[in-house]
Amino acid sequence: MAAAHELFTTNGYRGTTTREISRRAGIAEPTLFRHFGSKAELFETTILEPFGEFIDKWIASWQDYSTATSVEQMAQGLVEGLFTLVRQDRKLFQELIEARTDPTNDLHTSAVAISSRMREGLRAVQDTGLEIADARHLEHLDPPATIATVAAMVIGAVLLDDWIVPAGMRAPSQSRMISEMTKMVTHGITGRPS
């Protein structure tokens, strides 16, 4: 399984063959299929299940926030957590986004399930955010639009990093990107006119 995880992580689903996995693992290809049935099942076991567990932990982490949490702390938790989640499995996200739009793709069902888990996570963030906003008397918020905007900004910044940095400029570090997005979210929420 370690060989499959390493190859899928490096090369992606489409860029990895079962022959390569078998060779790296030191087993015959038929043995691989006897244990996992298909390349898609092997991918789900070695990549998607751990990824789903990471998402579940991220969702659970939002239960630790209290109404004493500042808007900036919450914004940083959201931006940093989502940025890290997407960055660590950038290629996986790209493949799942593609698979999500194509019902004939081997990973379509898994992509739908992962996207549902992500949306559940964003709902947990929204619910926590509403409690914090109520405690701080922040009105005029549009929670679904706010969460969707922040998620789109973070996911886009990670997945499109080679598209969005102006020509001739060095790409900002991850910490700079997280800091800047946290400030934008914080001031976007707290600086709204009544």
UniProtKB/TrEMBL annotation:
Keywords: DNA-binding, Transcription, Transcription regulation
Organism domain of life: Bacteria
HTH tetR-type domain: residues covered: 1-54
Keyword Cell division: no
Gene Ontology MF: a single term: DNA-binding transcription factor activity
PROSITE patterns reported for this sequence: HTH_TETR_1 (PS01081), HTH_TETR_2 (PS50977)
Keyword Transcription regulation applies: yes
DNA-binding region in chain numbering: 17-36
Any Pfam family: TetR_N
Protein's UniProt name: TetR family transcriptional regulator
Protein's organism: Mycolicibacterium pulveris (Mycobacterium pulveris)
